């Protein structure tokens, strides 16, 4: 870390020049960073360990008297406007400077940053790097077929983006429209996202594992008239019929006028009058110059749907400047990313992690980012580490569920490959248990690489709590997200809604002041945004998570406080699954809960009450219900267990007691708690008995 600081001190001069030359209209030569890096090595011998704040963060020279990382963090919270103004001026390239840093009032759900400013996100992610380093690799596409990776330079990615931008414009896509992208993780998907940003359209990326119905619901809610997809996807060697899924979806989407279809495999697919082949982009018929739209800071950059505690997914709205700045700053400092590093985030672009750390953060920083199309076990459990060796990945960012899966295959799959390029390991999406954390640190990282357990959400836009950045050599506690990022002020709330002030305490995790990366609203439903995030603790942003603050003041996430569960790092509302299950004609009602699963983190358990006189084999019905869930939502949402019961435990007012069901499934019968409020306590005994029988089968 200290070596990197020294390197950073030297790079400072370089980056200050970059930004000065940007404003002077001059461009820095590419060789600058590389030559300074060579210069850094003699200093390494001196063993300097000084924490120079200005070297660490160039903007901090203007922060008067701030020293050390904790000093910076305090300043970023207490002088939030000065901090974010300096960072925004320094790290983004503006068409017109902003006139107000922020205009936020969390109690009213009003969140605005950098108003008056105009910029273009694709110019920030591409053009400015093309001017300085056109041949630097922007994307390394790790295709499903191992060993067939493809690299795209910044120049090539800009050209591809401009072609897609021109294609969309030529087909009538306008500023303010919303384009749905249903594609695997691939360069054309990234170019499509950036092309939307270039012409001022919002994008709505839908994870390509979602079913036709789930896709249709998101297209309708986003009111998209344009969809971009591929003929087929390929993942883990299996073909995914994405175009067919889109065909089914758009049948119930009257707004859709055109579907662009790219070819990921060689198999032709049936095309309709609505479909437009994207081959022309490849055949380079479109111009490689595409005029970027001048966007207001608060114009929508994208919608991203995520699950909440009702059956209807919510389209969180992220805007241009604040989101990009926050993604870039967290990418740079949480992972200690430096010029020339290869950043390996293995998340799919369909999730917020893929957006912020597969695409926007690394590209805003002029980085090299890996797009991972495959699975951790294809063709074998050495896939990640083989990729680390081949692509010389410096920062690896993945999900605990994959780590837990891989550790079961043994150390030899890791040790087979050279991982000496690795400098930082990241974990995202769900709690990482100590065993997985230690294996990640000890075996994968050879005890050399800090493991950063990063807590954040679709709503927060970027990482909010993580062990780094921190003072050099500051401790990292396994399985803890630990320290708030710059500008983040966590607060824990007690059951009466009061702020808990001391340490060694648990409560509802809120964020006490706005930050630029936060979602602005829920598309078409600001009322829901207010009710979910702003009203539970007026003046605070409520995250939906619980957290523990240790004696030392470190944060540890304890899990969701609502009916949202996290299966293999994918968020899903239990109400969504219940809605799907209840659509089976044989089902009277159901209750879905999450339970601990040693690989997936959490898995789905469904209790189902059948209608009277239903005469179907339970095994057949279970298959049918799983089919319905994968058709209506996605495969990952399917229950691992379905228990058919006569009735559900309910309060006298009819509320299902999910707490009791959770205890039964966790075999924690001693803490079933007070059952006297139940309408019919005998229901619980029946369920316990049925559960025993299910397990013994
Ligand atoms: P998503 O918006 O799909 O990324 O899901 C966000 C949710 O995942 C959070 O609200 C947490 O419940 C959970 N989560 C994300 N990162 C972590 C983490 N590092 N530790 C514990 N839970 C996490």
Automatic annotation (TrEMBL):
Organism superkingdom: Eukaryota
Annotated Acetyl-coenzyme A synthetase N-terminal domain residues: 73-125
Reaction(s) catalysed (UniProt annotation): acetate + ATP + CoA = acetyl-CoA + AMP + diphosphate; propanoate + ATP + CoA = propanoyl-CoA + AMP + diphosphate
GO terms under biological process: acetyl-CoA biosynthetic process from acetate; lipid metabolic process
Annotated Gene Ontology cellular component terms: mitochondrion
Keywords: ATP-binding, Ligase, Lipid metabolism, Nucleotide-binding
Family: Belongs to the ATP-dependent AMP-binding enzyme family.
Domain AMP-binding enzyme C-terminal as annotated: residue spans: 576-655
Domain AMP-dependent synthetase/ligase, residue spans: 127-515
Originating species: Amphiprion ocellaris (Clown anemonefish)
EC annotation from Swiss-Prot or TrEMBL: 6.2.1.1
Protein name: Acetyl-coenzyme A synthetase
GO molecular function annotation: acetate-CoA ligase activity; AMP binding; ATP binding; propionate-CoA ligase activity
């Amino acid at each position: 870390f200290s070596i990197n600081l020294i390197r950073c001190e030297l790079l400072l001069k370089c980056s200050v020049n970059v930004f000065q030359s940007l404003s002077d209209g001059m461009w820095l030569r590419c060789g600058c960073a590389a030559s300074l890096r060579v210069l850094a090595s003699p200093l390494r011998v001196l063993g300097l360990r000084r924490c120079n704040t200005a070297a660490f963060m160039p903007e901090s020279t203007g922060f008067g008297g701030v020293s050390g990382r904790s000093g910076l963090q305090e300043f970023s919270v207490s002088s939030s406007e000065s901090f974010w103004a300096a960072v925004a001026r320094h790290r983004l390239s503006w068409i017109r400077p902003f006139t107000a840093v922020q205009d936020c009032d969390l109690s009213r759900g009003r969140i605005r940053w950098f108003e008056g400013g105009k910029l273009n996100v694709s110019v920030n992610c591409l053009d400015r790097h093309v001017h300085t380093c056109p041949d630097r690799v922007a994307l390394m596409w790790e295709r499903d077929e191992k060993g067939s990776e493809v690299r795209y330079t910044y120049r090539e990615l800009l050209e591809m983006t401009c072609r897609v931008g021109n294609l969309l414009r030529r087909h009538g896509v306008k500023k303010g429209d919303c384009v749905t992208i249903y594609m695997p993780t691939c360069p054309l998907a990234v170019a499509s996202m950036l092309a939307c940003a270039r012409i001022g359209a919002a994008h709505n990326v839908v994870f390509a594992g979602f079913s036709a119905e789930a896709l249709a619901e998101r297209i309708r809610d986003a009111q998209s008239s344009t969809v971009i997809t591929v003929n087929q996807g390929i993942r883990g060697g299996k073909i995914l019929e994405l175009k067919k899924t889109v065909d089914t979806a758009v049948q119930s989407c009257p707004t859709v006028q055109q579907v662009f279809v790219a070819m990921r495999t060689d198999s032709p697919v049936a095309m309709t009058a609505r479909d437009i082949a994207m081959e022309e982009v490849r055949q380079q018929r479109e111009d490689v110059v595409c005029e970027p739209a001048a966007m207001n800071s608060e114009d929508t950059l994208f919608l991203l749907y995520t699950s909440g505690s009702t059956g209807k997914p919510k389209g969180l709205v992220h805007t241009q400047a604040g989101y990009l700045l926050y993604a870039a700053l967290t990418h740079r400092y949480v992972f200690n990313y430096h010029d020339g590093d290869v950043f390996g985030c293995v998340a799919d672009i369909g999730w917020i992690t893929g957006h912020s750390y597969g695409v926007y953060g690394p590209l805003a920083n002029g980085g090299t980012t890996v797009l991972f199309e495959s699975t951790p076990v294809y063709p074998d459990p050495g896939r990640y580490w083989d990729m680390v060796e081949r692509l010389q990945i410096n920062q690896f960012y993945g999900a605990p569920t994959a780590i837990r899966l891989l550790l079961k295959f043994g150390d030899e799959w890791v040790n087979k490959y050279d991982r000496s390029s690795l400098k930082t390991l990241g974990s995202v999406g769900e709690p990482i248990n100590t065993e997985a954390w230690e294996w990640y640190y000890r075996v994968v990282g050879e005890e050399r690489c800090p493991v950063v357990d990063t807590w954040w959400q679709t709503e927060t836009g970027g990482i909010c709590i993580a062990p780094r950045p921190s003072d050099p050599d500051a401790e990292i506690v396994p399985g803890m997200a630990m320290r708030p990022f710059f500008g983040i002020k966590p607060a824990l709330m007690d059951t009466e809604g009061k702020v808990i002030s001391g340490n060694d305490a648990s409560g509802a995790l809120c964020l006490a002041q706005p930050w630029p990366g936060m979602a602005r609203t829920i598309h078409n439903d600001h009322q829901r945004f207010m009710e979910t995030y702003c009203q539970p603790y007026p003046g605070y942003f409520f995250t939906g998570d619980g957290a523990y603050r240790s004696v030392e003041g470190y944060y540890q996430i304890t899990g969701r406080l609502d009916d949202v569960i996290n299966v293999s790092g994918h968020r899903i509302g239990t109400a969504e699954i219940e809605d799907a299950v209840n659509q089976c004609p044989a089902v009277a009602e159901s209750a879905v809960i999450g339970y601990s699963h040693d690989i997936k983190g959490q898995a789905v358990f469904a209790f189902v009450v059948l209608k009277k006189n239903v005469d179907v084999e339970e095994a057949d019905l279970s298959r049918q219900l799983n089919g319905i869930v994968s058709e209506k939502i996605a495969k990952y949402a399917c229950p691992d267990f379905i228990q058919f019961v006569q009735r559900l435990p309910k309060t006298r007012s009819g509320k299902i007691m999910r707490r009791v069901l959770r205890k039964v499934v966790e075999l924690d019968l001693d803490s079933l708690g007070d059952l006297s409020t139940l309408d019919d306590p005998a229901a619980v005994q029946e369920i316990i008995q049925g559960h025993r029988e299910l397990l013994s089968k």
